[in-house]
Predict the structure.
Amino acid sequence: MAIFKQITIIGMGLIGSSIARAIRGKDIADRLIGCDKNEEHCDISRSLKLTDHMTSDPADAVHNSDLIILATPVGTYDQLGKVICPLLQSGSILTDVGSVKSSVLKTLSQYIRPDCHLIPGHPVAGTEQSGPTAGFSTLFKERWCILTPPENADPAMIRKLEEFWQAIGSKVELMTPDHHDMVLAITSHLPHLIAYNIVGTARHLEEVTKSEVIKYSAGGFRDFTRIAASDPTMWRDVFLNNKEAVLEMLGRFSEDLSDLQRAIRYDEGDKLYNLFDRTRRIRKQIIDAGQDEDVPDFGRHLDDE
Amino acid sequence: MAIFKQITIIGMGLIGSSIARAIRGKDIADRLIGCDKNEEHCDISRSLKLTDHMTSDPADAVHNSDLIILATPVGTYDQLGKVICPLLQSGSILTDVGSVKSSVLKTLSQYIRPDCHLIPGHPVAGTEQSGPTAGFSTLFKERWCILTPPENADPAMIRKLEEFWQAIGSKVELMTPDHHDMVLAITSHLPHLIAYNIVGTARHLEEVTKSEVIKYSAGGFRDFTRIAASDPTMWRDVFLNNKEAVLEMLGRFSEDLSDLQRAIRYDEGDKLYNLFDRTRRIRKQIIDAGQDEDVPDFGRHLDDE
């Protein structure tokens, strides 16, 4: 028996369309409804047969579903919650895939009905590409999905949502929304902010031309441009909705950077060496934990030899 | 006819051993001498047959060579220059592969004899791995090698060195050492500094455990750990020897970051969106220029489907 009778995915971008692909062919839902306000995304999803039914109307999309997944930028949740919550089937689970969780819980709690279950979630997975053609079925394989249920959530419903994520390859962890937002501020939000910033700084240089920045990007810069190519709307909403944690981590980052700057200015070679040596070990631990592959330079040269 | 009678590579790390591998089987040198002060590196190079002769003594290594390539951290050049310059064959070219150029030119100019040719160089290529086993023959393919000859350099000798780099797959560009150091400060040195710094900041957090940083690193952080796994000695020497340009770029980066920080604090969504949208286009230009591959997430998921 399928885990859910009918699942609705609202937002057929990288994450939404990857969930649709991951569900296909597995006994997870009897019926899958997709929704995207962008008619072009609807057409692509239809032609790729990603769902059983596509609509651009969220009110239509949630009808009769027992799992509703929001996969749009978190800035849209207020409006979406207002529209869909009165229409949800009694007993259904409302979840999401947004990269921030405290503000999401606060926003959606305003609209969720007592006879439905709000359990926000965040699959820590993605690429720098966007839209329904960017998704793929194995995106969540071996990646963590964090659920941040409110304190009064029904354990049976949490268990059911865990089962869903596990069925598409994820490992599931529960935490409070506040803790989630702090962990992700350092592991995801700050790295993106720094990457956007350095690419922005490079654009402004007049002494160094843009063609030089591009030509010599293999020296390290190009790695940052990958992250800085992520969806701008999604990331704007992340920073506006995780302001406190991001500003806190940014403060620490800047303090540490000032310290490093002084070490360079005053020729403190040992201090630089010690930091550079310690950071090297973190990479090894990430590879040992299966969170990245053990190939030099992300495997860029593997097809050359 | 080979380009050089005998080439000496001092330092059989990632770059030195990659040059040795790239030379092999091509009509570039009649004889190849390798040198490394680390006896283990010598043994590995011997067993991999990377050169015709290995020695740990630089004085021995340069004897009779018409091209000598320094491929050790730039902090070693002063001592090396002092030892080898008096022993160079008349008419030979002394070059290097260091990531900074003004300080290298200044250091080696003290020792180079008038009957030899100093032409510093920098192949903009590499991975985060180190040592003679990390090298591979196609490392320089389609990458740029920058030569920074002194003003009085012999054009025929510059041409010969260009020919060498082209023979192992590089594209060659000439520029002044000062301009090189500024271009690389933004495309390579600052990205490395930022990566080392953010990995350092993550290590210090007490509210977020190290295991959480590792588990959720797929959100962006893991990309930075790759760069922050690069050779610590090499990078210490880069920062100490390109201090002015790095501090200048770091100043601009920090100003831009403060501006971004204010935009987050005061909810300036449009400002964030506009920056994030512009940086996205730089990625496309790097891919169009053949300086990175057009695969999402560095191709990490390609073998999954």
